[in-house]
Protein 1
Amino acid sequence: MTRTITGATRVAGVVGHPIAHSLSPVLHNAWLEAAGIDGVYVPLEVEEARFGEFIEGLRATSWAGLNVTLPFKRNALAAADNAHMRARRAQAANLLVFRDGRITADNTDGLGLLVAFAEQAPGFDPKAGPVVILGAGGGARGAAGAFLDAGCPEIRVVNRTLVRAQTLAAELRLKAFDLRDAEAAFEGAQAVINATSAGLADSETLDLPLAATPAACVVMDMVYKPLLTPFLAQAQALGRPTVDGLAMLIGQAIPSFEAIYGEQPPAGVGVRALALKALGL
Ligand code: NAP
């Protein structure tokens, strides 16, 4: 069925650089169509130096909302008039909601991570034991906040640049480890989450002693291109249960859609199958 765009259509989208391969338009437009909402969701590529100008321009329009991806998540938080605690704690925003010329920032990445665990590792209980987060950027911060909110008793942050892990650990009362000491961090962990950008297609891969984790430890990778990263493949070869980054992407899109369009996305749309098709899988 073809949707008709009218003067009343609510317009939202996702901004990044690059943006052509974003899956967010696939997810949001499928939900909009299934829900019969008069809305459209578009990809927007913006020059890196012109993000501030771009946001100020949107402020003057009837724009409904914006998801934000690399490299603009920190800029998005700075451009907002106010921010949810989740975005302040992550020092990054993946969602800007526009209302009456004012912009509110949020970070739904951590919520998406918990949705991904609930879907692909249903036996996992955040309250049951230590969780290891690899990385100390916005993704890691969002994850740490979500696990803290979910009652996780101990979070270990492991990063290549130790001082960044220490800064995050001091802020949120976590434990900091150097990436070279990952084996010690893995001891007794009930989940390990890769929130580094290592593993992205064509970038460096992580080579860590995952065998030091308990047999039931859930291993998750935020990277979803490729869907089966070398890190997840290593975990699966060791027999560890895994959670993929696409489940997190879909998980963060659910509260984003609700914030932008004012209702939950409809159930049963099969957005994962659509996203897998868009990934060529
Ligand atoms: P970021 O702020 O740029 O942080 C990148 C982190 O990766 C830093 O901790 C950095 O360590 C580390 N790192 C980069 N290359 C590394 C390498 N070769 N070895 C070890 N550590 C390395 O990025 P971000 O926004 O947190 O995003 C991190 C990843 O999560 C990205 O791949 C992003 O696409 C993904 N992500 C996915 C979702 C989803 O929905 N699936 C949501 C959010 C983020 P240093 O501090 O030492 O530089």
Protein 2
Amino acid sequence: MSIDFSPVGLHDDLVKAGHIIPVGVQGIFGRGPIFEEVLRQFDHLVTRIAKDDGAERMSFPPCLDRKVLEKSEFLDSMPNLAGSIFSFSGTDAQHQELSARVHAGQPWQDLLTATHVCLTPAACYPVYPSFTGKLPDAGRLVDMQNWVFRNEPSPEPTRMQSFRVREFVRVGSPDDVIAWRAKWLQRGLDIMLSLGLPAKTEVASDPFFGRGGRMLAANQREQQLKFEVVIPVISSEKPTAVCSFNYHQDHFGKLFDIQLANGDVAQSACLGFGLERIVMALFKTHGMDPAAWPSSVREVLWS
Ligand code: ZN
């Protein structure tokens, strides 16, 4: 049986089934109860698979210390995707002007000033400051589910501005970090195949900005620093990335002064499951009603 792929068609099917709820802005939709139930069950599946890894569980809000964004060099590589939070801190007179402009439909943004926070641009960023200093001999492993913001409105449902990522971060020696990423790359692929999804792995690069960004991306591919598990969701030629596996070498170790027990700079890697994208891949592949999904898939998710 062949599947038709259409970005807008998938969006409309998800809306018709009550799985996503448009709110007027692209990429910021609500989620219906069955969508959330599938997302929760997938998240539990990851928990079951990772249960013996000994990860520390953490949770962070969807915003981040502005200083962490600055330090991480995200604004050097993907400034167009970042979201900064601005608020009003003016006088009474300025407040009256603000209200008047808002009600008159005029621009008012220049009356705001930057706060100390920005929106989290990558699920692992909140955790790096907590690693500063000397690591234990075995390094550390952290497990999180965080909301991520990316400024890329699109009618295409898998390209969201706000979404959740189940993210694991490993810091330690190069050998430990590389072996850990390799193990999860296989696990990630196996999870998708166990759900009847036509997944494969490929070398990938981040969407770095501008001309300098093209060189960064080429370098990242050449060194195989980023892999993705991809599944056809809106296109068969350009399958959608549903998990990514990133080897940062000593990038964050240097920026956040993270050291191995012997004083060397620690290395790091992270992996993230794009939860909404995986749910959409399940709906696209198996249909909009989970009750009618193959029993093998239901058994893996609801066990
Ligand atoms: Zn990450």
